[in-house]
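Field reference: sequence -> structure
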Amino acid sequence: MQTSGVGRWLVTGGAGYVGGHVVTALHAAGVEVVVVDDLSTGRADRVPRGVRLVRGRLDDPVVLDHALSGVTGVVHLAAQTSAPASVTDPLLHWRANVGDLIGLLAAMAAHRVSRLVASSSAAVYGDAPGVPTPRAFGEGHPRHPLSPYGATKLAGERLLADLAPTGLDSVSLRYFNVAGALSSVLADGKPGGLPPAVLRACVTGQPVTVHGTDHATPDGTAVRDYVHAADVADAHVAAVAGLSHGRRGPAVYNVGTGVGSSVLEVLACARVATGVPVRWVAGPRRSGDPSWAVADVSAIARDLGWRGSRDLSDCLASAWSASRSASTRQPLLQPT
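Structure field:
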């Protein structure tokens, strides 16, 4: 994909888990990058040498004005990302995922920046109402979020579509379940998510709680589409290149593999990747969790030429290797 002549791009949340992979991929592709991150969950050492880091919050107009100077486009990743947590604290997620987006868009308009790649989520879909046999979700699939998190992401997509007549060209990328890591520095240190929980269990010997064993799936556990963080990063590079070379928005694309894996299948795959058996116990379903979510990725392959090259085994093996690094072992693998 052609990344020459794309100008300077601002990446919000570029010191986070996904953000670190995205910034690394953009930088490797020759794109000039500026990062803004408050480092509340991010790490400054995830930002490659030579990339400017502006430390601050997106609700600070002074920070945005400084970060957007000389920028030709924005990759917006900063967000609250936990569906279960959004059920208990929806206001936090609406303020971060919609309020901060509005502030960013206003600042972009003031700086005449009209290109945006935004992180969205498969959480906009919810379950598949009225579909007796699950199938991959295409971008036109009905959207019925089961959590405030999913609702905030859908609201963001609608906001970007409303702004298209004003001259904003946007690409929203609906991530499915991101996992894996290119290095120990870029590893996912957050306690949430099944792969990190499984890897902690491999170290601690504590059982993994399986949230729901009565889903309408082959083995009764929830099915997800796991996509490697490096592939997600490459999807952002493709979107930046597309917007920089004439592709108009708004556009929305799934970012996944098209392959679903149940919780029990993830546990079995983790045993192969780590050599450690994983014990588990059954727990209740969590509010906001769908039973099944797998991506149809034909649209992004057709329009942007992107397709993931890594599978679940790659996700778990790379995450295990990163978590076993001496420099990150304790912070990544502490029991929660």
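Note: Residues 20 and 45 are 9 Å apart (CA to CA).
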